[in-house]
Amino acid sequence: MTASLAATAQDLLARMGVDASLVTGGPLTVTSPIDGSEIGAVTPSAASDVSALVARSQAAFQAWRQVPGPRRGELIRLLGEELRAHKDDLGRLVTIECGKIVSEGLGEVQEMIDICDFAVGLSRQLHGLTIASERPGHAMRETWHPLGPVGVISAFNFPVAVWSWNTALALVCGDSVIWKPSEITPLTAMACTSLLKRAMDKLGADAPADLIQLLIGDGAVGEALVDDPRVPLISATGSTRMGKAVAPRVAARLGRSILELGGNNAAIIRPTADLDLAVRGICFSAVGTAGQRCTSLRRIIVHSAIRDELVQRLKTAYASIRAGDPLVDGTLVGPLIHEKAFADMDAALAQAKAEGGTVHGGGRAQVAGREAGFYPVPALVEMPAQTAIVETETFAPILYVLTADNLDEAIALQNAVPQGLSSSIFTNDLREAETFLSAVGSDCGIANVNIGPSGAEIGGAFGGEKDTGGGRESGSDAWKGYMRRATNTVNYSGALPLAQGVKFDI
Ligand code: NAD
Is 257 left (phi over 0), alpha (psi -120 to 50) or beta? Predict the structure, then answer.
């Protein structure tokens, strides 16, 4: 069993053009959460390597920024083709390296393909405004220019999609990219880089060799990247702890950051809700990816009129969900990423009990042939109040049940956590739905009606507020974060405006 996961991973990497010598024999061991076995061993970069890498990225940027936008888009179109051709390979590698079920691994690659399509169109639409000048004989407009090398730091749980949101946009915007993936998932990062290099080869001489560079390593290597003043933008996705370490360092050198951090997402369930829809939406959002999504549903806030029925139906649904091997068809919940994640889940459930909660589920599921993996039993926890543990993001399948009758009270409870990523309401009452989406409603970056908080599309700007970092990646006008804006004024009148003309007698 152990040999076969390693062999499969190595085979998939080879199919995507990653040289075997790069993924074996190194000092950083890569293990699969499926069974804890070693699937690769890579060589990390040192913090002292970062300076030279940034210099190469700068040189690549200086060439790439002169390539016309639509031609830059052609590179991303070619990347999309590579991803289509290797969707199964990369999706399975995501499953083996980070443990999400195969359909979610494939879904992640589909998201990459989708953002490539989006970015190809965007490459012809990097346009600014023309602005009516207040001065006679003057024209004013804004121009968007490439920014420079972009540092992308990503988390283990979306090992490839987050990179593609950032990279597809950054490359069509004329930037070069240095990617520091999670040290837990370097293999998928190497595969993505290899596929992009293939696309660069197909594009030809327009693509400078160091347009994309990979920086394998832990937070210390990340910090060297974060501190380098030649990197004008750091886009970092991960825990709030990481964001709080990164943000002040980038700010200290007056750099720019896009931060995508933790979530503690709620759904409000109102008396008019379609409960069939709500139960399905809640289960998908709460136990999908074993609760290891930034948008995972962690709290439901239910009206007392429907609370008992909903809790009963959720208990029945939870009883039918079994964690299992994520490579096997039909598995809905795979393993947690590592032993510490499982210990964190256990500790959170113990704290919930101590704070007055009633816990259904929890503990470790045994999966035949995968005994060394940490497979969680999803937990439903009835809480008397929104206590300290409910206000904490635990990266595991724990769903807390709270009760609130009044809509304003429910919204206040939802908003009363430090994280502000995603949120939802289940209701068939138009006034409640619109109130939830209004200025006095959800304070999150994502607010949904009759659909759970997870499963965002690439077309919208993805990101949250408060402790979530306030950043936006992916669709909408998020591309503006990867460019610099210049305002240009042209005087075609042959005269200076009065206010400037009278000042000097020269
Ligand atoms: P993490 O914060 O432990 O690591 C994320 C990345 O940051 C890794 O590449 C890590 O090496 C790097 N890092 C850590 N400390 C650093 C430092 N001081 N300087 C520079 N880089 C540093 O997160 P994780 O455990 O990999 O992922 C889970 C967390 O990520 C959860 O909190 C989840 O909500 C969040 N997440 C958020 C989003 C989002 O879009 N909002 C998406 C995915 C994951």
Answer: beta
How far CA 239 is from CA of 234, 332, 468, 469, in Å, comes to 15, 25, 8, 10
Ligand 1 centroid distance, CA of 468 (Å): 11
Instruction: Tell whether 289 and 245 lie within a shared domain.
Output: no
Q: Does residue 223 sit in the same domain as residue 289?
A: no
Q: Which of 261, 286, 301 is the last residue of a domain?
A: 261
**Does residue 482 form part of some domain?**
no
**Structural domain of 397:** 265-449
Residue of 183, 221, 239, 472 with the most ligand 1 atoms within 8 Å of its CB, for mutation: 239
CA angle at 246 for the pair 224 and 292, rounded to the nearest 5° = 110
Using the mean position of ligand 1's atoms as its centre, give its distance from the Cα of residue 205 in Å: 35
Q: Specify whether 303 is located in the same domain as 391.
A: yes
Task: Tell me how far the alpha carbon of residue 243 is from its chain's centroid.
Answer: 13
Q: Looking at residue 253, which CATH number applies to its domain? A: 3.40.605.10
Does residue 294 carry a catalytic annotation?
Answer: yes
Residue 45 DSSP code:
P
Q: Is 260 a catalytic residue?
A: yes
Q: Quick check: is 497 in a domain? A: no
Q: Is the CB of 218 under 6 A from ligand 1?
A: yes
Determine whether the shortest distance from the Cβ of 189 to ligand 1 is under 6 A.
no
- For the CA of 421, the closest atom of ligand 1 is 41
Minimum-distance ligand 1 atom for the alpha carbon of 263 = 34
- For the stretch 452-479, pLDDT in tens is 999 889 999 999 999 999 999 999 999 9
Distance (Å, whole) CA 29 – CA 480? 38
Distance 219 CA to ligand 1 centre (A): 9
Catalytic residue among 183, 260, 393, 432: 260
pLDDT for res 496: 82
Count of domains observed in the chain = 2
- Any domain includes 179: yes
CATH number where 421 lies: 3.40.309.10
pLDDT in tens, 83-131: 999 999 999 999 999 999 999 999 999 999 999 999 999 999 999 999 9
For 385-407, give the DSSP string: S--TTTTS--SSSEEEEEE--SH
Task: Dump pLDDT digits (tens) for 324-334.
Answer: 999 999 999 99
Q: Which of 294, 393, 432, 444 is catalytic?
A: 294
Question: Do 270 and 348 sit in the same domain of this protein?
Answer: yes
Q: Are residues 243 and 273 in the same domain?
A: no
- Among 261, 290, 318, identify where a domain stops: 261
pLDDT single digits (tens) 203-256: 999 999 999 999 999 999 999 999 999 999 999 999 999 999 999 999 999 999
0.85 surpassed by pTM: yes
Ligand 1 contact, 185 CB (< 6 A): no
Ligand 1 center to 117 CA (angstroms): 26
**Residue closest to 260 by CA, chosen among 425, 110, 420, 399:** 420
